[in-house]
Structures are given as structure tokens and as C-alpha cells.
Amino acid sequence: MRLRIPAIGVDAIVEAVGVTASGELEVPVRQPWDDVGWYRLGPRPGERGSAVIDGHLDRPGGAPAVFWRLRELKPGDVVQVLDTQGEWWSFRVHALAYYPPTQAPLQQIFADTSGHYLNLITCAGDWIASEHQTQLRLVVYTTLIT
Amino acid sequence: MRSCMCRRPKMGTLLQVFVILCLISLVWAPGLRATPKAAASPAAFVRIMHASPDIGVADVFLDGQRALSNFQFGTVTDYLAIPPGPHKVQVALIGKGPDAAVISQTLSVEPGFAYTVAAIGVQATGLSLVVFKEDNSLVTGKAKLRFYHLSPEGGPATLTANGNPLIKNLQYLQASDYTLLAPGHYTFDVDLTQQHVSQQTTLEVAANQITSIFSIGLALGTPKLELVARQVAGTPGLPDTGSDPAASTTPPVQVGVPLALPLILTLLLLLIGGSTAILLRSRR
Question: Which CATH number covers residue A30?
Fold first, then answer.
């Protein structure tokens, strides 16, 4: 699978990811900073429900990673996914939202079955050294273009 | 001649370029991330259960609009996304319209949360809606189970799994806490001990899923006691996709660009300055 977001120059390999031992969505492991991860326990992009893809914001030391420019997306921008059958699926951005990681609407992000969605996730906000994580998560909500 | 004079680099110009490059590199540098915008208000998620023995096949209206039709006893819907806030929910016999509702209640739901709303009760003691707030977050490698006692006139209920008590003496209209199980095949029994009535169902409960078991129906009478099970995928927590900006464990080529730029320029200027000083000193 591949993910393309022309508006911010993303063209990345999609790895299948699951959950960590502590219950969080895993991140890509083969090329952690350049690949993105599709949540394999949820729907595939294009299927009914909420498909989810995550990617790193930055690398250790702070250099940009694959989703560094995710925050630049605007409603109306196009996101494309090439599936394993060679078919392209196109989605349109309809909202961006920032959440503290423990206060995110997980049902909406992972389990909204009212349509065909693809939600993109990365980190945002300041780095909190004591927690070894950023203050926020960015979720870009997109809807399948029919 | 004049143009030649103008193109000669001056120390002031070099400093200006240096300052501009430093500013660019600082904006590019880690830690100065974009100021977050306000979060969009998420939806609330509601599933509806028909658990009232005295309501036949029904229509359900949400804020006056028909949301469900041909809604039968024992049915649980999928989670429906609705705007957060108060909503008028009405349950009426099929085809009768909202003005003939047998239940009419206003329920308030919070953004981002999931709820189970059950139509419950019997005519003798009243029909109503009860609301349960859900936690569908998964526990890695475990099956998560919640038991709902919606069987009227039966006293407290006990749920056993493969003969072992799992939830004891749950009162009518209560939902249990979530219980964790090893994934696998289970026979679940509900016992209404005051009535000496029990019912069972067998289920495969899977890892990372949320299983709901509803006890509905009458201990003595029809519709009789039964167990209804629904399973949904659990939701994971959000990933950690950020990195320590102070770390230096990645290859220098990747990590160096934004951080090293001011340093390189400073060293370059020092080198130029030093060379010039040495040159001037050597000419004296």
C-alpha cells in the first residue's frame, strides 16, 4: 500500500500496524520515520468505517519525519491510498483537530461507521520531556470521494 | 565601476544574511511546532437496545425524525453518530407516529462518548429509557466483557462463564463493570436466583474486542428470559509519533540539517574572520 498527499508532498509506503502491549496504536517499524502505519485491526481505506493511518512527526533530534507537514492540510485537500490490489482510493480532508492523547474521541477516530473515512494521526504541540511525548495529537479527518 | 562597488560583499550584508538564515533555521527547528487550532467538536455515539417485553415492534424517533423502523424486541443497533447535546427520543409502536409514543424522554450525550440506550420496563411498573455510558477502549490481548441486567421482575442476576461466577448479584437496570477474559470459547449462564430461572448462550470472545451481554425478557412469562450478545472492536489509544528533539541518536545526515545550519554558518564566519585577521597581520 502507498499513501500520497500531494498538497504536502507525502508519498509513503504503508505498513500494517497493530496495538502495543499497553493498548496504543503501533507506529511503523521498518522505516519508522518515512513509512506510515495502517491500523490492521480496523477497516481498510475505502471500506465502510474509520480506517486509520499514523506517521511520525519528527525524528530523534527533531528533523522532520513523514507527517511533519500534516498540520498544513486544509479542508478540501486530497489524500490518496493505493491498495494491495493496485486500486487508488481518494479522500477529501474535512476537518483537523488537536487533542490531548488521553482526551481524544477514540470512538469517532476508530469506530465511526456512518461513512467511509480515513483518519490520519501524528503528534503535535510541545515536547514534554518528563512524559517522553508531545502535548497533543493531530487527527486529520478525511472522507472517501465517491 | 559603480556596479562592481555595489556587488562587493560588506560585513553588514553578511551579518544580515546570517541573521536571516538563522531565523529560517530556527523556524524550521524542532520544538517550535505550529500553534494548535481549536479542536472540532466530535460526535456522540449511541446504540439502542429494545429490551421492553411490553413494547411490540416499534419505531424510534430522534428529535421528531424517525431514526429506526421495525425495531424488534432483543435488537441492538450499531453505534450511530449523533451531535452531542440534548435529544428527544421517542419510542412508538410501528406506524403510529411520534405523537403516539409510549416512551418520550430527553437524553443528553457528551461529545466523543459512546452510550447504550435501552428501552426497558413493563406496563405495570412503567416504560422508560435507561442510558449506559460505555468505555470501548481495548485491552491488548484480552476480551473485555460487560453484563447488563434488563430482565424485569426477576431479582438480581448472576452471570457465570464456563460454570465460574463472573458477575454476582447484579441489580435490575444495572450494568456491570468491565471484566477481562482470556480470548476463547465460553458458555455464559445468567441465573435469576430469586426465580430459580437460568438461560445460557455460547460465544467466542476475541482479543481486543468488547463483548456486551444483555439479559432481557421475563423470568416467568413471555417473552421469556434470554441472553443477547453483541461484540464490537475495541478502540486503541493514540500512538506516540513524536520524538525527543534533544536526542541525537539518528545519523548525522538526517538529524543535522536544521540544527547544524546556524552552527556551520557561525564556524564559517569565524573562519573567514580568523583568516582575514591572519592575512592582515601577515601584511603588516
Answer: 2.40.260.10
CA distance B245 to A134: 10
For A83-114, the pLDDT digits (tens) are 999 999 999 999 999 999 999 999 999 999 99
Paired residues of B76 in beta bridges: B49
Residue B80, domain CATH = 2.60.40
Strand B209-216 and strand B143-149: pairing? parallel
Residue B276 domain-assigned (yes or no): no
Check A110 against B233: CB less than 8 A apart.
yes
- Cβ atoms within 10 A of the Cβ of B283, count? 6
For B236-246, how does the pLDDT look when each residue is reduced to its tens digit (9 = 90+)?
999 999 999 98
Q: Phi and psi of B259, rounded to 5°? A: -75, -35
Tell me if residue B261 falls in helix, strand or coil.
helix
Residue A76, by phi and psi: left (phi above 0), alpha (psi -120 to 50) or beta? left
Q: A19 touching B, CB under 8 A? A: yes
What are the CA-CA distances from residue B233 to residues A5, B95, B135, B141, B205 (Å)?
28, 34, 12, 12, 11
- Report chain B residues whose CB lies below 8 A from the CB of A42: 233
Q: Whole-angstrom Cα distance, residue B149 to residue B159? A: 10
Residue written as grid cell 481549536: B38
Task: ipTM value, please give it.
Answer: 0.95
Whether A23 sits inside 8 A of B238 (CB atoms) is: no
Q: Does A42 touch chain B (CB under 8 A)?
A: yes
* Paired residues of A36 in beta bridges: A14
For B107-134, write each residue's pLDDT tens digit. 999 999 999 999 999 988 899 999 999 9
Residue B82 parent element (H or E): strand B80-82
Residue A64 in grid coordinates: 522532520
Separation CA B199–CA B190 (nearest Å): 5
Q: Is A138 on the interface with B (CB under 8 A)?
A: yes
Query: Number of structural domains, chain A?
Result: 1
